[in-house]
């Protein structure tokens, strides 16, 4: 049985700001409720990235305040109403910005992890 300490040590922490980009990207594919968002992130990352509700919902509220996503309540066939989130026009623009920043960050990290490769390209 895995202890709570081992579970914590095996977690993959998401860089600050990365969760916003992931949410915007998933909503770019179509509107979803919170649980579906976290499930897509988990599934598409090969079960590596697991977003708990304590991180997801504050991020959703923050993105909504910034006007990058919008939300509305919809009836559910299976029970209580669902809050469905969708990407706004300004959210689509922000996703382009976030993806550009991510590309710069990964290139910078690659330069540190593989400096010989960077030198040969110069």
CATH topology: Arc Repressor Mutant, subunit A
CATH homologous superfamily - what is it? Winged helix-like DNA-binding domain superfamily/Winged helix DNA-binding domain
- Model regions low in confidence, pLDDT < 50 over at least 5 residues: none
Helical content, roughly? 55-70%
Structure overview:
The protein is mainly alpha-helical. The protein has a single domain, classed as Arc Repressor Mutant, subunit A. It is 60% helix and 11% strand. It is built from six helices and three strands. It has helices at residues 4-9, 18-28, 34-44, 53-65, 89-113, 115-121; strands at residues 32-33, 69-74, 82-87.
Q: What is the gist of this entry?
A:
The protein has 122 residues and is mainly alpha-helical.
Name some characteristics of this structure:
122 residues, mainly alpha, three-stranded antiparallel beta sheet, 6 helices, 60% helix
SSE blueprint:
Elements: H1 4-9, H2 18-28, E1 32-33, H3 34-44, H4 53-65, E2 69-74, E3 82-87, H5 89-113, H6 115-121
Helix pairs in contact: 2-5, 5-6
């Amino acid at each position: 049985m895995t202890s709570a300490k081992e579970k914590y040590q095996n977690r993959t922490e998401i860089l600050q700001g990365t969760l916003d980009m992931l949410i915007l990207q998933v909503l770019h594919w179509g509107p979803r409720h919170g649980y579906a968002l976290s499930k897509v992130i988990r599934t598409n990352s090969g079960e590596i990235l697991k977003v708990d509700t304590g991180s997801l919902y504050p991020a959703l509220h923050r993105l909504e305040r910034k006007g990058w996503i919008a939300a509305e309540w919809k009836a559910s066939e299976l029970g209580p109403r669902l809050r469905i989130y969708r990407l706004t026009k300004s959210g689509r623009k922000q996703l382009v910005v976030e993806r550009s920043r991510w590309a710069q960050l990964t290139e910078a990290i690659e330069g540190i992890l593989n400096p010989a490769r960077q030198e040969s390209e110069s």
